[in-house]
Design goal:
Blueprint lengths: L7 H16 L11 H10 L5 E3 L4 H9 L12 E3 L9 H11 L7 E4 L2 H9 L3 E5 L9 H6 L2 E2 L12
Parallel strand pairs: 1-2, 3-4, 4-5
């Protein structure tokens, strides 16, 4: 974990360890205050929202089920983890698109990791890099290349209906 490895087995182990901490209330998933209102707005416009994380699906469900905003699992249409493939490989994004029955060019992928943004872009998805406190810094080239947002309120998405 100290090497920040994104292996599926390690992420699953983390998920099992976290289950007890979340269930007892010792841990809550931190959600930025702009996230829930933005996702609600997108869903009202007919959009689907999925999570693709290096954290296991179990860990994702714990984080969003026991979040600082309460149980917000109903906001998500599905969850993906590294079982679908590494986030730094474009084929993973194609598999997700196939799994949800959507063309890759109808997907917006939000990340704070440029290597993931690059892989998603190679799969023909739209990408925005999210700048949040605590995230790793970006190079000047990355800052000028990617669409950058610091809040979900900065996204203006077309209705899917």
């Amino acid at each position: 974990m100290s090497l920040d490895r994104k292996t599926t087995a390690l992420k699953q182990l983390q998920g099992h360890m976290w289950r007890a901490a979340y269930a007892t209330g010792h841990v809550k998933g931190e959600v930025f205050e702009d996230v829930v209102p933005a996702i609600r707005k997108w869903r009202e416009a007919g959009m689907k929202v999925y999570i693709y994380s290096s954290g296991s699906v179990e860990a994702q469900k714990l984080l969003f089920g026991y979040s600082t905003e309460g149980d917000i699992l109903e906001l998500f249409d599905g969850h993906f983890d590294t079982k679908i493939g590494p986030k730094v490989e474009s084929e993973s994004y194609r598999r997700i698109a196939e799994s949800i029955g959507c063309a890759t060019n109808n997907i917006l992928f939000l990340t704070d990791v440029p290597r993931e943004a690059n892989a998603a872009e190679e799969a023909d998805t739209h990408v925005a890099v999210v700048i949040r406190p605590g995230n790793a810094g970006l190079t000047d080239d990355e800052k000028s290349y990617y669409s950058l947002i610091s809040s979900f309120t900065e996204l203006f998405l077309p209705s899917s209906t």
